[in-house]
# Entry
Amino acid sequence: MRIARFAKGDGVAYGVVEGELEQPLTIAELHGHPFGIDPAGVRYTGHRYPLAEVRLLAPVLPSKVVAVGKNYAEHVKEMRKLSGEDELPAEPVLFLKPSTSVTGHGDRIAYPVKLTDRVDYEGELAVIIGRLCRDVPKERAVDVIFGYTCANDVTARDLQFKDGQWTRAKGFDTFCPLGPWMETGLDPADLGLTTTVNGAVRQHARTSELLWDVPSLIEFVSSVMTLLPGDVLLTGTPEGVGALTDGDEVSVTIESIGTLTNRVVIRDLPGPAEFSRNLPGQAVAQVAELPLHMRLRPAVAAVGEDRDLLVLYRDLVVGGEDRGRRADAVHQADAD
Ligand code: MG
# Structure
């Protein structure tokens, strides 16, 4: 099942994308938030729209994006040529991208031209976590996965080498396009992944080439940090990374999921008087939609008896309550 998050007029909602690819698709609007619900048990509002008449948004607003570096052997080799370092890593190399780097299909990638001279694409399979979880054995990873989507781990390559750690290089606003939707019924073990720039193929690999597969990554990451519903795991990029320039159209296609496309636009840094007027649309939507977290309560009910996790999660939920009431007035279309 393909589940998308979309905007139609002033409203934001989730919906099921229906139809065969290559044909005009429709989107069937859902009640509330699908997380924590068996995808087979989602409820429809009865409203259906041609997909071309809605704006797709990033399919989730994650609390964090956990990413893995150097997870394809051939990419490790090409990075060695660029940086002069490293053999194959002995363990997965983890880093975080901020939630504010997330953007959706069709949104621009903003190139901060005064801060970096090289911005690269990195096509990747993204895993969407569906349940609150910690210490997940790889045999049970499938139980905590909601679905999969395409990702572009956009990277300021010069800053990555200069800084030694990757927060700045990976963390700019719009540096984490996700989409176009989540595919829930999928085996991630052997999917073709292709990245194109202006139609030319730059990366092509299969997820069977991953050094650590999806279940192993879930086990490894969840042994470090609790994962919340909607959190995103980027599984690493294959060889063929390269630079983007102003106006480039970059697409990441994953077999059985779809194609994520974004255009690169130069972002000159604003003067002091403009600083608060220059927020990307996605960040504004993210603040307005905080009440969505409150609708994750069914997921809490699904996780069982772990009191610490429930307390942690309840704090997050209650923290959003006041802001939620105000935003609810704006987002009636999302109300249950
Ligand atoms: Mg990457």
Remarks:
- The chain has three domains: 1-57, 65-272, 295-319.
